[in-house]
């Protein structure tokens, strides 16, 4: 716009000068003794005409530039990614693949945690509503998978093995303590196993969140290097020459952040959910141990008092049958 204004002012000045020289009597009837002055004025008029044609060409070039610049900036992000070079394009492919894997893990884990949370709450409710542990164990496979169900299965299996020893050697304080220790270790092992299952694929989210920005930064640095190499080869350091290469390089950083942000959010979210599940397992394990300990202590006391059929009645009361 400023260039057009300058062209209009200079053109007006040229028109004024041409009118002055055209109507001036001195210009058409110059004195003979001032022939050199006349020749100079003619040369000035010719120079003005040449300058006017140059200004007109410059104005046309400016209009073409103004029209073509918006078109040059209208390339979409995918075409820029393809034109960014093999190294940057490979970085973008890695980031896209990493982003797809991250979103797949996020979706799968979200569905998984919702499923086990619902199944776990249902099993814990049935645990407290059942009349005996033996009845609950008989229909254990009717319940959907949950960490609480697996914990009960392994704990009940260890309790049944301890019950076999009691039937062979009789009830004693040492046997009760050994059974409780074995049950505690079995439940701890089951908790570790379930924690490993809950944490499956979660470390990959941490890897994606921590490495994606650096992978994108590598692509950006490489793209900027190529942009500066292009400047060195062409010798043109204008913004129009630098901007395309830098914008293509910055695409890699954008892709890296797009992969890292969901991975970081998902990782922190699922860490909290795993912590909640482990707290529920610890509470369920403590309740299970309390029930079994009361049963074993009661049975040991009845055996010590030599009550006839006390052990069998205790088995029926708690519903823990010998196997």
Could you walk me through the main structural features you see in this protein, from its secondary elements to its overall organization?
The protein is an all-alpha fold. It has two domains: 2-72; 82-318, no CATH class. It is built from eleven helices and no strands. It has helices spanning 2-23, 25-28, 35-72, 77-82, 86-129, 133-138, 147-169, 173-198, 202-234, 239-304, 310-318. Mean pLDDT is 74; it is low at 1-7, 19-34, 61-74 and 309-318.
Order of helices and strands: HHHHHHHHHHH
Number of strands: 0
Total domain count:
2
Q: Work out the helicity level.
A: over 70%
Mean pLDDT: 74
What descriptive keywords fit this protein?
single chain, 323 residues, mainly alpha, rod-shaped
């Amino acid at each position: 716009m400023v260039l057009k204004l300058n062209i209009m002012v200079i053109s007006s000045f040229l028109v004024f000068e041409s009118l002055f020289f055209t109507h001036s009597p001195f210009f058409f009837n110059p004195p003979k003794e001032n022939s050199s002055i006349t020749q100079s004025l003619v040369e000035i008029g010719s120079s003005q005409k040449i300058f006017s044609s140059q200004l007109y060409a410059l104005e046309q070039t400016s209009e073409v530039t103004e029209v073509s610049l918006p078109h040059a900036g209208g390339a979409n992000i995918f075409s820029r990614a393809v034109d960014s070079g093999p190294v940057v394009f490979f970085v973008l492919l890695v980031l896209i693949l990493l982003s797809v894997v991250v979103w797949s893990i996020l979706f799968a884990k979200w569905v998984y945690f919702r499923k086990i949370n619902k199944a776990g709450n249902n099993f814990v409710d049935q645990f407290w509503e059942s009349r005996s542990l033996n009845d609950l164990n008989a229909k254990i496979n009717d319940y959907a998978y949950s960490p609480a169900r697996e914990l009960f299965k392994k704990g009940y299996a260890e309790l049944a093995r301890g019950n076999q020893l009691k039937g062979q050697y009789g009830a004693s304080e040492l046997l009760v303590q050994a059974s409780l220790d074995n049950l505690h270790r079995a439940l701890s092992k089951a908790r570790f196993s379930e924690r490993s299952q809950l944490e499956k694929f979660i470390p990959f989210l941490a890897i994606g969140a921590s490495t994606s920005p650096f992978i994108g930064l590598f692509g950006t640095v490489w793209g900027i290097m190529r942009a500066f190499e292009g400047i060195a080869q062409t010798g043109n350091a204008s913004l129009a020459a630098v901007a395309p290469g830098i914008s293509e390089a910055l695409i890699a950083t954008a892709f890296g952040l797009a992969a890292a942000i969901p991975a970081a959010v998902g990782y922190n979210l699922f860490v909290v959910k795993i912590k909640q599940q482990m707290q529920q397992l610890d509470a369920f394990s403590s309740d299970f141990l309390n029930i079994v300990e009361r049963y074993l202590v009661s049975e040991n006391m009845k055996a010590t008092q030599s009550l006839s059929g006390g052990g069998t009645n205790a088995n029926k009361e708690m519903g823990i049958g010998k196997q």
